[in-house]
Amino acid sequence: MTESDIGRSDAESAALDSVAVIGTGMMGTSVALSLRARGLQVYLRDQDPAAAAVAAARGAGTTEDPPGPVDVAVIAVPPGEIALVLAECQAAGLARVFTDVGSVKAAPVAAAEAYGCDLSNYVGGHPMAGSERSGPMAASPTLFLDRTWVLTPLSETTPAAIETVVELVELTGAEPVMMTPADHDRAVARASHVPHLVAAALAATLDDADDAVLRLCDSDILDITRVAAGDAKMWSDVLSLNATDVAKVLSEVAADLAEAAAAVAGDWTQLTTLLRRGNSGRALLTGALFY
């Protein structure tokens, strides 16, 4: 799919007409831009009016209030704030259906239950796309093209709510995949959260590097540490909300690194075994991504 595929043809018509996006950072603004490109009416909200104004100036929607309940509200705030925003939006009657784009799913659901939210019209979501950059100027209408977008409906979620959010996801060009909140959190601990920590740890070894070392750093280390440029406070919050699963995977990585450190001291067979496991894992990854 190409960027030109986003535009709605005359023959196409979506059941969705209006969406509210709460949070106009990189992710929320990307959702808004993508949906605006499909002809939907998008209403923007942000606790920082300046951020919402920038998103609106980019064509992501309007900062005016909707005249009535919208079809879907997309909550694009940090995972620790999702439940409170959901409760506030439901109390205000902002939308008929609610979803989010948080990278942790179980903790927000537990918090939403504690707030007494109506979970029948809520479908948790997590698009597996992003950037180390932040803010509405980093957003792109093509961010989600051909990417996986995890949806985590609950037992009480209505089929109509699920269908509505699936339609929204497909309008962005992403592929919806259903998982439970717990399965999602276990998977992203290995696929996203721990890789971010490993990248940060490697980048941290360079925080006092001299010019001689930095001159020798090539594209390999730039690629490996790219995500370490992400917002530290936001990532700290994300990791803390998925602490159990992250700790389990991180301990496995730490054990492999400890073995590697010992192997470098003389057990080259063990080191070669680890490197070959790395070859195998990389081959599986690239096969899955480019199949």
TrEMBL record:
The keyword Oxidoreductase applies. InterPro entries: 6-PGluconate_DH-like_C_sf (IPR008927), NAD(P)-bd_dom_sf (IPR036291), PDH_C (IPR046825), PDH_N (IPR046826), Preph/Arog_dehydrog (IPR050812), Prephen_DH (IPR003099). Belongs to the prephenate/arogenate dehydrogenase family. It comes from Mycolicibacterium arenosum. Keywords: Oxidoreductase. This is Prephenate dehydrogenase. Residues 17-291 form the Prephenate/arogenate dehydrogenase domain.
